[in-house]
Amino acid sequence: MAPPKPRVIYWFRTDLRLHDSPALKAALDLKPECLYPLWCWDPHYVYRARVGPNRWQYLLDCQSDLSASITKLNPKSKLFVVREAPQTLLVKLFKAWRITHLVFEKDTDAYARERDEDVMKKAKDSGVEVIVKMGRTLYDPDELVKANGGKPTMSITQVQHAAEKLGEVAKPIPSPESLPDPGDITLDFEQTQPSPTPDINEIQRDENDKSYSKLAGPNGDFSVPTMSELGLKPATTQHRGGETVALRALDEIISNTTYTATFSKPETAPTAFSPQSTTLLSAHHHFGSLSVRLFYWRVMDVLKSYTKSDKTTPPTNLIGQLLFREMYFGAQAPLGYSYAQTHGNSHCRFIPWHLPSEIEPSNGLITGSYHIDAPEAGTWFHRWKWGKTGFPWIDALMRQLRQEGWIHHLGRHAVACFLTRGGCYISWERGAEVFEEWLIDHEVACNVGNWQWLSCTAFYSQFYRCYSPIAFPKKTDKHGDFVRHFVPELKDFPDKYIYEPWKAPIADQKKAGCLIKGDGEEKEGEGEGGVKIYPKPMFDFSARREICIQAMKNAYHIGLYGDHPKVKDGTWREFFDDEAEGPTEGKDAQSNGVPGKKRVKSGKEASGDKGVDQDEGEAAELGGESKGGDREEKSPVKRKRKGQGTLDGYFGGKKARK
DNA sequence: CGACGAGTTGCGCTC
DNA sequence: AGAGCGCAACTCGTC
Questions:
Q1: Three-state secondary-structure class, residue A9
Q2: Which domain holds residue A79?
Q3: Is the CB of A305 under 7 A from strand C?
Q4: For the segment A73-97, what is each residue's pLDDT rounded down to a tens digit?
Q5: Which helix (H) or strand (E) holds A534?
Q6: Domains in chain A: how many in total?
Q7: A415 sits within 7 Å of strand B by its CB
Q8: CATH number, position A516
């Protein structure tokens, strides 16, 4: 008897496109009798990830566009959206639709790996063959890591070397010209309802959530959900998702060959907003509505036509931007869940930030809640998130982020530096959570990686380079057009004061129709005669900057990483000062000039594979007098034998021991 | 091993 | 007005 003709489910996830899909090509190569383009409404996304209305809308845009494109190729087909978790749904569909093959694109995110392992095991038990192809990145992150000696890719040099070993980036695959019919689409089984608690997205909804009220949607037609079916508040962003929009945007960028060939990220203006100065393609890459390999080769084609001196190169050019994405995927892939948090992360420095994450003891994962170790830091975080810090540049960015779901890369630097090492000294995990909620282009690997970069906990370490909320935007926007647009209360302030309005004389404030007072909690227009109010700055930036740099310096010398036993059991505190006022700004900070510095009595322990071995045999010459006068501290984990005229030289010691 | 230069995107001052 | 340097100082990669 001839083998049955393949009946295939193509499971869409972060690959909402028809062009350049190695997995879709593999599905079609099976010459199936029927093909079901499927989307499973994963409760992990609905209830357990932070997703604000703007990213929801963007996802629905992508799904609607994809569904329409599928129907164009085969009027009987569409994107079949089924409201159930893949882990429970797929096995039932295998049976109901007599499926022989399940095909999907590989996903190396921590949760996705777990989910896909589960699904693959169940498929095997059901006698369904599974085909997985990589399509999300230029290189398979697991292959990239292998080529990097099995280690997470932590620098762009490592990525470039590893990539060289892997050879050329795959050439894009054209979209299919036709698609097979779907088969019978009856659903003769009960829906498995997910548990909506805890519902991390509850705050995003303004009516009853009907996400799982009926398997094939309210009309039983497998439709893409609407925002109202999901109970979500309306989106506020003007940015639209979908493969059609993405390909059009790509064409437009590539047609401007000068822009494409001479793009240099550090020189793009973070204050440009209409139009913005970068490509705005990141969200398309996130949802897969634009293939990174297509973008790569289209840019390469343009670069080929330019002579060496006329074009930019990685890491600053457009290709370089893709390489950073590869780096973050290659860092996440081997680290799994620990990548997205400090606790247990072998490659993330431990810094005693304010508002630290709460850890679930049973699995060592962050819970999404945090400790308010200092009430002041709690207030600062609130004011940062809601754009009321009193620093117009920071507030304008945070309001743009909330409103539009996108801000320029350097704007992200500015607000991230401000929240962490260059202002509030608040955990990067708090900031990453806000970005996760509000960005339309949120990609776990990139978001987490960039927050670690900016907070100098991984990837980057020049913590003394600090963005000023006043000087930095002045470079590209002397008149403050960006601030005037997103913080309209300040729109009539003179240029001179636009980034530091608290310095404006009262007469000027009155003339501009806005008074600088309060902490941002007053209602707008509360002032007499409808005069507007903008808050006073929440702290003296220069003073905070100094405190933070000193605290960072100290934490670097202590040298703990997230997987250190003392980080895990909480006894890291013995290396830092004064809990009552927060570990970074204790009383001793005044007495010795270094915030949070504590005289560590003993204890040298290894932190994972951090290379402490290089200290083997080096005598501990320190702990005594030094040119610093009163310096008398030891690091539990010595980083380096000797610095180049740095304090490192004073932190000698024997090899750390576990 | 050590020295040295570089590192996608700092600031503020001088010339 | 734009380039260059000092600031006080990090890690990585290469020689």
A1: strand
A2: 7-204
A3: no
A4: 999 999 999 999 999 999 999 999 9
A5: strand A532-534
A6: 4
A7: no
A8: 1.10.579.10
